Amino acid sequence: MRRLLWAAVLAGAAFAACAKDAPLVSAEPELEKRMLAVAAELRCLVCQNQTIADSNADLAVDLRNQVREMLRKGQSEKEIVDYMTARYGDFVLYRPPVKTTTALLWFGPPLLLGAGLLTLWLVLRRRSRLPADQFEPDEADSAEHDAATARDRTR
Known about the structure:
With 155 residues, the protein is an all-alpha fold. It folds into 2 domains: 24-97, Helicase, Ruva Protein, domain 3; 101-154, no CATH class. 63% of the residues lie in helices and 0% in strands. The chain has helices at residues 2-18, 29-39, 58-72, 77-88, 103-128, 139-154. The protein starts with a helix and ends with a helix.
């Protein structure tokens, strides 16, 4: 019982050590709303699959603070997005524009999927045309074959 209690205490201490503080809510709710709107358009450069509004990575927190400061200075959302794009490239945009430099981002996954499906279709088509003796027997068929061969030898 003591071991179980100590394990629970140690697990709670480990969880408390790993937990991060909740983000502070700004005293300016309108500014916070604008900051979150801009942050929802920018990709976290650490996580890469989250916006900086959703990410808890240290860089995302720094970028949110930077966006907040830029908004306080009176910069527009477009100016902030343009600044971040100039600094980090189109990759920082959660929805990058369709242009020649981002074509691979937009069209690469469907092309890879199409190539994979085409390859699968070709392989299956080629295999369907092969005679049955070109395939290795299944394990169950092999065991039956071995048993039948053994019976034939004993006769």
